[in-house]
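just leaving the lab so this will be short. what follows is a protein written twice so to speak, once as letters and once as structure tokens for the fold. can you read through it and tell me how you think this chain folds. thanks a lot i owe you, the record is right below.

___
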Amino acid sequence: MQTSADRQDRHQYPAHWEADVVLRDGGTARIRPITIDDADRLVSFYEQVSDESKYYRFFAPYPRLSAKDVHRFTHHDFVDRVGLAATVGGEFIATVRYDRIGADGMPASSPADEAEVAFLVQDAHQGRGVASALLEHIAAVARERGIRRFAAEVLPANTKMIKVFTDAGYTQQRSFEDGVVRLEFDLEPTDRSVAVQRAREQRAEGRSVRRLLAPGSVAVVGVGRAPGGVGRSVLDNIRDAGYAGRLHAVNKAFPEDLKDVDGVPAHRSVRNVDGPVDLAVVAVPADHVPAVVTECGEHGVQGLVVLSAGYAESGPEGRERQRALVRHARTYGMRIIGPNAFGVINTAPDVRLNASLAPEMPRPGRIGIFAQSGAIGIALLSRLHRRGGGVTGVTGVSTFVSAGNRADVSGNDVLQYWYDDPETDVALMYLESIGNPRKFTRLARRTAAAKPLVVVQGTGTAPQGHAVRATRLPYATVSALLRQAGVIRVDTITELVDAGLLLARQPLPAGPRVAILGNSESLGVLTYDRCLAEGLRPARPVDLTTGATAGDFHRALGQALADDTNDAVVVTAIPAIGEASPGDSELAEALRSAAAAVPGKPVLVVHVELGGLAEALSAAASTAPAAVERAPGTDGGAPPPRAAPRAGGSGPAARAEAPKGTDGIPLAPPDGTRLIPAYPAAERAVRALAEAVKYGQWRREAVDPGKVPEYEDIDEKGAARLIGELLARGEGLTISDAETCELLGKYGVPVRRALPAPTPDAAAEAARALGYPVALKATAPHLRHRADLGGVRLDVADEEQLRRTYDELTELFGAPEQLRPVVQGMAPRGVDTVVRAVIDPAAGAVLSFGLAGAASQLLEDTAHRLIPVTDREATSLVRSIRTAPLLFGWRGSTPVDTPALEELLLRVSRLVDDHPEVVAVTLEPVVVAPHGASVLGATVRLAPPPARDDLGPRTMPAY
């Protein structure tokens, strides 16, 4: 007889079921299969479970597990019987198992597709979302093993477990019999189950970041006794920022009798700290980090900021050291920012944490900043902190994260935190790489619907140290997909700050109509021209003349804001001479008061050689920072320096200073204060305004994104059968023309028939079958779709012309077997376009559209949308290419049937969305005529679909 151990040996250990997860409270746990080596762990785990929890699990008093129980619960075949455990520190904190059953409720094997499932969670870890995470993973395992339905029996008093099942979002049935609640539910993901899963993901990942940004106690590990060095600098920065929690200095080299370092309690080890430590900032050499991680884990530290370098950025050896660091920290349920990080900052008055290498605490404000590179983080903080650089510092920072190698905490996690952070109104991100584009796009879309998200995206080459999923999509395509998700894409740090300052305290414009007024006609005209170049609709500038007073500016701005034909106002100002000329502070107050009277429209200022106005605009709202000196040889890229001594209260060197609290920390502006951003150049102001206009339009459209239409003539099941038959021939293949026509036909996408013409006689016969006029085309790869090379001859009227044309082609390009000629019936004249769809392993399914021809290819004039595409997205896709006017009657041409084109796009989107085995579709050309659209050429590639981790259980990136 075959034993359970024998059966377990028959099935290889499913290592791909192992996963790290973020729990509801922000901590982490590891989920893995239970094996025969876990007997002692299981017994120890069970001993720590309360009698009540044991009773709920076994429906009777069950004080201890028998040897038979231990054998049963640790011996699995990984098919019909599976057990998973959630572990922290290598020890079990919860278990779940399923047993496949037949229709009679008895143990069974495949093809039975139902299983009983049961959980047990240690009491100390109940309420952390462990059971919900285990349910997601055991359901995914069951689906993989052909199980489609779970059944669970629960005592009525076990309300927590009943809630785990009912809240999961699966389609379920509930019954009550013999004092037991029986729950049965299908395991196929539903819209609700996916929504529940993603909401839990957001809460968990957001809380995990909050634990790092708002700790109640911090230990800096690696603090030197003498000033200087990374550890000592960070300790000083935390203390000088007025950190509201408990702070500890740690160094194993401290003398045993050392009690403090500059008043901060000193310890030789984190273990010696009396009380909890929420965050450890690690600034020791990489070789010493593992010992520090062990100390922190054993002391219950919740998270680490690892400043230490020498990891993946240094090469293969460092990359393996980084993997080991992440695995080590996750063993204890800790999350990591870094390694090679610059640090984190939180300016909230109840936190005031500057656990970074920035020597000065940024001014509190409403902008969140994420940067992977420390150098970029420094530059961003400097530009927001300084009054120089031509941009008025109209607001400050809420939180700052420099993730370094982002081995664990990434931009995705910080987005989850910012999404519902009440202290952050605008998110700025400098992303050198995007590790998970599919997830980032999903999170960005949701975040952008609530608050502006401005991103500088790296060029596509990931720095050393960054784990990035391979994508076959061009950089421009990824950028277009980010814009579709509501991301404000800019190209430089300057543009990032410019847009952020505008969006932080100005309302979104309701449209592209811009009023321009000021005391310089030439500057007004320059602003007008830049508005036109950015696609805005400016009114003629209003010239107030160089003699304009502050009152003139106030009246003109008030009138422009009150005019319903304006959506935004740009004020231009140059220095004026004369007794009546307004001073900087007087002009700033005039503009601020006029803007405050009509608060629904954004106002921007373009100033030339008028630095005092930039200062005054901020000072009028009491938000100017202290004066600072620029570090020699830098241009906004140095760390925010210490405040320079003031030379007096007047003169060009004097700076307005922000009011400060009793602790010396600059006060944030009152909530709702109307802060006006000022720019040193018209193009910078207009570019920021144009991005705000586009984002405002996206926000309005996002309220009603449209719907994915249903088409009654789509044969989804027939297409699935055909795809299955074709894939049975091989793993990946480009199917034949006939098979392509059959598959597309099942989704209502007819392809105009083309017949092979290997000889002149065969061409004539094909033409007679199709009817004249016809087209004769060479389909060899180097001539396909290349009418410009002469490989396509149109409007062949009769057989004589056909034979003559055939001879011309063969004389020009070679023998028929090289040309692969075909004959095709002529389609109605129109505009040639190209439709493509591809499933990218990193970004997901993407639909692309553009006009056919070399010009569009050279200009890269192609638009993209994520699949599934809604009707509104299809409409915008057609109109978003630069050559779209050719579809709508440009220069007196006849407009083409764009509704037919949009329907074609929607049908292709449905095909790829319904059948992920369709990994690539190309329709070229699609001739869009005044009535209808004709597909003249099509190719389809099939392959097993890429794994969809966004539909699977929640997991952290694997290490």
